[in-house]
Structure formats: C-alpha cells, structure tokens
Amino acid sequence: MRRPAAILAIAFLLAAGAAAVWWRQQGQLERSQDEVIRSAAKRYEVDPSLVKAVVWRESRFHPEARGAAGELGLMQLQEIAAQEWADSELASSFRHEHCLDPRTNTLAGTFYLGKLLRRYRNTDNPVPYALADYNAGRANVLKWMEGDSETNSAAFIMNIGFPMTRAYVTEVMERSRHYRF
Question: How far apart are the C-alpha atoms of 21 and 36, rounded to whole Å?
Fold first, then answer.
C-alpha cells in the first residue's frame, strides 16, 4: 500500500517541478521585451502597460510571430501600418520583414497605436476605440460609434459588433491594468 502512495508523491513532485520551470520561463519571456516596449512607449508617448498588453495579446512576446493575413512580429503589424511608420521616420529602405526585429516592430506598432489613441481623443476613454480600430479597422469602429457609443467608451464596448473584437478590447485593457503593477 505504501508503494502506490510513494509513486503518487514522486509524480506530484515531478509535475510541480515541471510547472515551476514552465512558470519561470513564461515570466522570463513576458519580461524579455520590456526594454524595447518602454523605449517605444516613451518615444511615442503611449502608456507602456498598454503597449505591453497589446504585445501580450498579439504575439505572447514571440518576435517571430506571423499572422494569417501577413501580420508580423510582436505587435502583429500589417504592411500598410508599418509603412506608415517608416514613412513618418523617413526610413526609405524599410521592408515589412524588418518588423520581425523586436525594436523596429515595437516602434512601428507603438507609433500606430499612438495615432489611433489620438484619433479618439474626444471620447471619455480613447483606449477601447483605439484597440478596436487596431484589431478590426476604422470602418468597423465608425459603424459601432452610434448614439452614446460615439463618446461613451462603456457603451462603445457593448456596441462592438464582433465578439472576438470585444473580447480583444476587454482582454487587452484588463492586461494593461495588470502590467501597471
């Protein structure tokens, strides 16, 4: 009778050890981009916790991430958004593949996110509008900005027509609050 209990105890210890290693690796990965995130956030005057939350949601901190629609890198940038950043920075030799570099990607993505936040500055909280725009595009955001949702962010979130985009907005906002601590 003692033998099965010992086997169970050993199995439990092995599982707990594996979980601890996994947890430590996830924490290291989650902190791996902090320097480039802080630098880009400072340069473009965007809350670093928001940038980090977007990186978390878009790529889980994997700089080589690629999306099904051609998005690249940490912030999953599409070519048109990345090119807009490159044009603003007068980077004439820029190619979309440069977005696989964490620094380049985070600079371009934070520039774009900052632009979206300024676009909705006349609302009570531009963050959900900017995140919805980042995820689903401006045309969809304009459809969802009806009545109270034109300036009331809580009403806007409830009015988001795509469940996946609504989840994206709420997850990123929640994660951003987590990163402030």
Answer: 25
